[in-house]
Amino acid sequence: MADKHDREEAKRQKSIDSELKKSKSLSNDGTKSHGEILKEQITEGLETYDKKSSSLLLSSLTAGLEIGFSYLLICAVYAYFSKFLGEDVSYKLTALVYPVGFIMVILGQSILFTEQTSLLTLPVLNKKRSVSSLLKIWGLVIAGNIIGGMLIASLLLWIGPRLGIFDMIVVEKIALHATDFSSLVIFSSAMLAGWLMGLLSWLLSSSRDTLSRIVIIFIITSMMAFTGLHHSIVGNVEVFAGLVSSPNITFGRYLNFQVFALFGNAVGGAVFVALLKYRAFVYNIDVK
């Protein structure tokens, strides 16, 4: 019985791989089909799996550092405009600068956990990589992103006040804005953010030029910022900066935020993008 099931699964997988190989653009203007985007996503994911651990760690560390430029601009905009427009309006304005770090990371091809969540899950769904290898690579990327975020947060805490860009009150308010929610709310919010980031990766595969990619990144990430959805890597910089500088941000509060934000981001990207997009393609294939 088990052998029969295994044979049927192998047959089905062969049909899926064959259909993916045949996938191509459907229109004269070069618009990519669902299958073509899925094939590119799986291929890109497999390329990441094949990189050395040291390369992955360094690239993810770089992403953690670069995403800190979003935090620098968030603090600068909030500190400047809150004097005239009030805190609520000023925080909404940070959505205009929030995408800058993401543009640097994604176009610079550093490895960001939330952008890679869906991408790295697809080869597992396609049975080209194991769950254990997925968890291992997630662990490396998360570690690099978090360490990089801590390093850039420490630097910005030192340079920001000395350049008169922001003060520690601003740092505390931004950290409290990210953590002042229940664990369930942080998880649910992060799940939506992970969903958007997974969708961002999918949309970038369908775009053909740099300008359109920048527009897509801006739309998705500014939406996250304006609505206050929790992003574990930017949030790591925000909350770690608060942990270092404010007695109101305890280590327990930082850890609670980080765990639920990471878990939510992972679920959003892996389930609502990778799994659903993959299954939408697979369910349309007849086993031959």
UniProtKB/TrEMBL annotation:
Gene Ontology terms for molecular function: formate transmembrane transporter activity
Signal peptide as annotated in the record: none
GO cellular component: plasma membrane
Transmembrane segments: 56-81, 93-113, 134-161, 181-202, 214-234, 254-276
Start and end residues of each stretch annotated as Disordered: 1-33
Membrane topology category: Multi-pass membrane protein
Pfam families: Form_Nir_trans
InterPro entries per record: Aquaporin-like, For/NO2_transpt
Subcellular location as annotated: Membrane
Listed Basic and acidic residues bias regions: 1-22
Protein name (record): Formate/nitrite transporter family protein
Upper lineage: Bacteria, Pseudomonadati, Bacteroidota, Cytophagia, Cytophagales
